[in-house]
Design goal:
mainly alpha; 3 strands; 149 residues; Arc Repressor Mutant, subunit A; three-stranded antiparallel sheet
Length: 149
Amino acid sequence: MSLKTMKKEDLELLSNKDIAFMILEEGKRKLNTADLFNKIIKLLELPESTFEKKIADFYTALATDKRFILLDNGKWDLRSNHTSDKVIKVSDDDDEDENEDENEDEEKQEDEIEEDSFDDTEDEDYDDDTNEELKDLVVIDEDEMELEE
């Protein structure tokens, strides 16, 4: 059923997302959030104040609905109009290669971690600065802290 032939009472039963879906499906063109929501407001004959009150909720609803996709130019379109042409063929050989690559990566990471272990003799300047900053500090045990309170 097309939006043009639907009665206002029927439109009111639909969610804003469903109406947006129908607008994008029938219009065959992409629209930004504001234009799309304005069309819905006009179709439902809602007051203009609805726009400012509900535009954020409408945007969130579109963003979380998997039927819609937000394009780089800030316009919404139906996800079904944007399919990938790439087909990935997975075979048993590919799985074995991936497992071998993962094992090699894990071994490299372990080696790097061992090489990066902390060595306090390398950064003597750091120790000097830290000691200088900490020379005025006093250590207080828990009993002394309780007495101060």
